[in-house]
Amino acid sequence: MNGRLGLGSYAYFWRHSERAPEPLTLADELRQTWDAGLDLFQICDYAPLLDFTEAELRATRAVADDCGVELELGTKGVAVDHLTRFAELAVILNARLVRSMVLPADRDAGLAEVEAGLRQVLPRFAEAGIVLALETYEQLPSTDLVALIENVADPALGICLDPANNVAALEHPRDVVERCAPYTKNVHVKDFAFTRTGGWIGFTLEGVPLGTGLLDLDHLLATVDPVGRGITMITEHWLTWRGDYAETARLEGEWTDQTITRMKEHLT
């Protein structure tokens, strides 16, 4: 795994949704990733994957191989049996990273139990050469996430850094980046901004095209050093529904193109 840019399922959120007249398939997204000049795709929170037969999984791997695209996986939760299954999926798909997150139910059960479960499952990841990256999220303060990583102290465990998520818990993105950078194995690249709601009562936190919002990309890249440290960066968006499919899909593709262009400028 080296430091490079890829696409993820959330870059196709609307175009593979039930609202699409002809939803994109996973194979379509892999081919479009290659067409965009990228060689990495993170299959993230893609529910049908758990129902794939082994033949379907191997067919997906074959499409990725034909396109020259490396795969990563993404899921939610840290239950031992669930993570064990994703380690198995990663082996079949030749994925070298699995992104997950500590859900509220996991947290409520106690971080000591989460830690014990990670210690139980991580040898399976390490044996297969797979990294498990837990994402920064508002459900778990970044201080607690870092403490969890430090307590487990396993090279197969790290952080998927997405500083936009923790804004909802009143954590400043720069603080999250600096706190989590030493343990970061994967970055979700998306920009975000606050806008006033109708009547000027309250705010909405939503996605915007990269470079037009509050994400300090220069600080993120300088602090994390993804290229120098071999950290993969996955493009995704918080694009809200725009009233009809055609306009929403157009913007989704446009935002992806803009992100790729801007990231290539920053990485060259």
Automatic annotation (TrEMBL):
Keywords for this protein: Isomerase
UniProt key word RNA-binding: no
Top-level taxon in the UniProt lineage: Bacteria
One GO molecular-function entry: isomerase activity
PANTHER family: HYDROXYPYRUVATE ISOMERASE, XYLOSE ISOMERASE
Cross-referenced InterPro entries: IolE/XylAMocC-like (IPR050312), Xyl_isomerase-like_sf (IPR036237), Xyl_isomerase-like_TIM-brl (IPR013022)
Xylose isomerase-like TIM barrel domain residues: 35-242
UniProt-recorded name of the protein: Sugar phosphate isomerase/epimerase
Pfam family, any one: AP_endonuc_2
